[in-house]
Amino acid sequence: MLPTFTYIKPTTLDQAVRELATPGARACSGGTDLLGCLRDRVFTAEKLVSLNGLTELRGVTELANGGLRIGALTTLTEVATHALIGAKYQVLAAAAAAAASPQLRNQGTIGGNICQRPRCWYYRGDFACARKGGDICFAKEGENQLHAIFGGDVCVMVHPSDTAPALMALDASVRLVGPRGTRTVPMGEFFVLPSKDHTRETVVEPGELVTELVLPPPPALAVSTYRKLRARGAWDFAITGAAVALGLRGKKIESARVVLSGVAPVPWRVEAAEKELVGHELSDALIERAAQRASANATPLSGNAYKVALVRGAVAEALSDLRDKG
C-alpha cells in the first residue's frame, strides 16, 4: 500500500521548483519507478509534485545547429518512434524501444528513465544496505549474478537505464533547473560513482528538475546502434548492453563512443575500445580487438563472471551490425 502524501500539480516551472524546494517533496511524471519505490518503502515522500501540467517539458525540437532538444517529459514511445531521432540518432531510438514493456514506454518519460533508482534486490528489499545509509553492500557476498563487474566499490548496483548509455554515446547534455537557477551537465558527468558518493545515482540536487536533454549534431557520416542482452526477449532490464556511436570518413572510423549498460553503477564508457577503433576500418579482427578491450578491466563477483563474455559479445554484435548496415 502507498503511504499518505499530498499531491500538487503545478502549472508553471517556477511553481514546480518552489514546491520541490519544500522538505519531503518528490517530483512525479510517469511515476513508473517512483510509485513502486513508495509502495515498497524504499524511500518516503510527504508531497508528490506532478510535472504533467508542464507542457514545455514535452516533445522533440530540432535546433538551429542541427542538434535536438528532447523535453524530459517526452515518453519513451515518442523517443523510440520519432522520425528525426530514428534518422539521426539510431542508438537512442533503439535503446528507448528496448526499454521495459509497451505499456511502460507509453507512460514512462526519458527524464525519469535516466533518473531511475537501483533495481538491486537488496536495495529494494528490507535491507539497510550501504546505498540506503547502512554499512554493508550485501550483494558483494550475497546473490550478485546481476550486479556490477565495473566501478563497484561501496556498492555494486547496476544502473538500470537503457537510454542513458545511448545518450552518453551521443555526447548529450542534461539541463537542470532548481532554486539556484539553471545549469547544463554533460551526460558523462551526470552520474555518480559509489566511490564518490554511494548514496546517490546522479548529480541532481534536492529541489532540482531535469527539464531537457540536448543532443549535439551528429557527424556528417554517423552510424549508431544499441545491443541489449537480457534474460527474456522483452520487458526486462539489460544483463549487459552496448551503445555504440561511430563517426566515419568513408569506411574509416574518425570518432567512436562505446558505452555499456547493465554492468556498472553508471553507464560505463570504455575508452580503450574507442581508441582501438579510431583510425581503422571495421574488420573481423578489429571488432574482436575492440570487444576484448571493452571487457579487459572487469572485476566480476562470485556469481557474475559470465558477464565478461557477454560484454565482449554485445560490443562485437553492435559493431558487426554497424559494419553490415554500412
Structural overview:
The protein has 326 residues and is of the alpha+beta class. Among the domains are: 119 residues, Uridine Diphospho-n-acetylenolpyruvylglucosamine Reductase, domain 3, CATH 3.30.465; 104 residues, Enolase-like, domain 1 (2-Layer Sandwich), CATH 3.30.390.50. The chain is 31% helix and 21% strand. It has 13 helices and twelve strands. The strands form three sheets. Strands 4-5-8-6-7 form a five-stranded antiparallel sheet. A hairpin with a 2-residue loop joins strand 10 and strand 11. Helix 5 packs antiparallel against helix 9, helix 11 runs antiparallel to helix 12 and helix 12 packs antiparallel against helix 13. The protein is globular, with a radius of gyration of 19 Å. The protein starts with 5 loop residues before the first strand and ends with a helix.
* Portion of residues within helices: 25-40%
Q: What about the largest sheet?
A: 5 strands, antiparallel
Label the CATH architecture of the domain at 55-115 and 158-215: 2-Layer Sandwich
Which strand order spans the largest sheet, edge to edge or round the barrel? 4-5-8-6-7
Please provide the count of β strands: 12
Find the CATH topology of the domain at 55-115 and 158-215.
Answer: Uridine Diphospho-n-acetylenolpyruvylglucosamine Reductase, domain 3
Distance between the termini: 52 Å
How much strand? 15-25%
**DSSP helix count?**
13
Shape: globular
CATH class of the domain at 55-115 and 158-215: Alpha Beta
If you compute it from the alpha carbons, what radius of gyration comes out, rounded to the nearest whole angstrom? Answer: 19 Å
Give unreliable regions as ranges.
Answer: none
Order of helices and strands: EHEHEEEHHHHHHHEEHEEEEEHHH
The helix/strand class is alpha+beta
Mean pLDDT: 96
